[in-house]
Amino acid sequence: MTQAVGLPTHPRDVRELIRRRDFTGITAGVSPGYVQANLAILPKDLAFDFLLFCQRNPKPCPIIEVIEAGKIEPSQTAPGADIRTDLPKYRVYRYGELEAEIEDISDYWSDDLVSFLIGCSYSFENAMLDAGIPLRHHEQGSNVSMFITNIDCVPAGMFAGPMVVSMRPVHHSKIVKAVQVTSRFPNTHGAPVHIGEPHAIGVDDPTQPHLGDALAFKDGELPVFWACGVTPQAVAMESKPPLMITHSPGHMFITDLRDEDVAVL
Amino acid sequence: MTQAVGLPTHPRDVRELIRRRDFTGITAGVSPGYVQANLAILPKDLAFDFLLFCQRNPKPCPIIEVIEAGKIEPSQTAPGADIRTDLPKYRVYRYGELEAEIEDISDYWSDDLVSFLIGCSYSFENAMLDAGIPLRHHEQGSNVSMFITNIDCVPAGMFAGPMVVSMRPVHHSKIVKAVQVTSRFPNTHGAPVHIGEPHAIGVDDPTQPHLGDALAFKDGELPVFWACGVTPQAVAMESKPPLMITHSPGHMFITDLRDEDVAVL
Does residue B156 register a pLDDT over 90? Predict the structure, then answer.
């Protein structure tokens, strides 16, 4: 992945630009090689059940870091950062309804809020590209295809719902390699959840996604499905919490972790 | 590892014996190939911080399953089991002081308690034996050596403290293999935390353990250190919770998971 034009490379410097609102765009391609994260902020009384939901469903909900109530710094993955200002765009939901899309959530902040940073697919997509596996949604300049499956997540408290998956067409000659390289990244969704019979997971037509964009298949390509970070947000939203704040789609939090820091083996 | 004499193989059948108090011994060698777990039971108001502590310190505190307040069944890893009766021996602590060692905790149970099952080293020890790496504490018929290191766990809420590690002497010709095979088991402590310079982690003399038994070294063997499941219990105990229930040392909970179920790659 090439570096976004005109931006510094190190996440600390990029976050500084974001905090000053000198950069408010999507973060795809920004600080290549560093781990980016989805954000979900919830009131403290829901935090145990949500953390437990993530623990029970590590493929769609891999926790990168949790910031306790009363704190605003992701001290393990981005020392010095401020979770209220250092994402380029946020969404604020009240009882499951979108209330605002803003570049700073300081006005919504209270010491009652717990912030969850959840792994995203960029890390394993870099590994796929490095392994010579092309990504159709990059080639098309579109979003990845996503499907709501018939796979139930393991519930926790009020949190329950189906697993959402992303789909990438992979040539049959590259499927084994795709499993191998993504298996190294269990903290960013990891190995595929399905190969071979889309109907079995509730996907009738891999060319007709439920979310995101349709992707063209080439000869010899099969649909390969990975757990998707949309899952925890969708599940949390279903519970209609009094307040929930997330990143705006594509506007992720950029940590100081390198992709290799979250790889196994 | 050979099967304990006279016991059935499947964990479900062993738990049935334990529940009837027909088996109250240590579980080493029982149901070989199945995952065993450490137990820590805490009041609900400490559960979020303890779960977060485990999430932040996955090497010493790998969560196998959490049973919410009000429930007694580890439904994901041992359907039908009862956490109050299906371990051969428990310890009950009040404000950090041992109050009782008993075979059934039903009298102490309340709907306010959350149960944590935490991975133990048996799974990766089986993998080491399969890989031809001898285990000195098995040969000696003793406990493994344990040390309280100078490595601070990442704190969460009231939970903080040093990492406890176990030590196994490994011949230099087998050290690479020992790293490889244990790396496959991140949910049961995984790869070593240290090789090569014990002083660097606060271990002055590898033959003088802080806990457990001393192990003899043979020519060409080095001390290799793994994160130890004693860590979360020691840390929780330090916080002197009003009630904490654990397994009695060596008397683990036997799940229905096979070792391979918790392996990566």
Answer: yes
Q: Is A11 exposed, middle or buried (0-12, 13-18, 19+ CB in 10 A)?
A: buried
pLDDT of A233 > 90? The answer is no
CA–CA distance, A136 with B49 (Å, rounded to integer): 42
CA dihedral A116, A122, A126, A129 (to 10 degrees): 150
Task: Establish if A112 touches chain B: CB-CB under 8 angstroms.
Answer: no
pLDDT digits (tens, 9 = 90+) for B188-236: 888 999 999 999 999 999 999 999 999 999 999 999 999 999 999 889 8
Give the integer Cα–Cα distance in Å for B161 and B115: 21
pLDDT of residue A187: 84
Q: Would the CB atoms of A183 and B265 count as touching at under 8 Å?
A: yes
Inter-residue contact A230 to A250 (CB < 8 Å):
no
Contact A72, A113 (CB under 8 A): no
Report the C-alpha gap between B233 and B253 in whole angstroms. Answer: 15
Confidence of residue B4 (pLDDT cuts 50, 70, 90): low
Contact residues, chain B, for A47 at CB < 8 Å = 48
The whole-number pLDDT of residue A2 equals 42
Burial class, B213, CB count within 10 angstroms (exposed 0-12 / middle 13-18 / buried 19+): middle
Judged by CB atoms closer than 8 Å, whether chains meet at B51 and A56 is answered as: no
3-class secondary structure, A240: coil
Distance from C-alpha of A80 to C-alpha of A90, rounded to nearest angstrom: 19
Strand residue runs (E) in A75-128: 90-94, 97-102, 113-119
Structure tokens at B127: 């993998």
State whether ipTM is beyond 0.90. Answer: no
Q: Can you count the helices (H) and strands (E) in chain A?
A: 6, 12
**pLDDT attached to residue A5:** 62
Look up tokens 């596996």; give the residue: A133
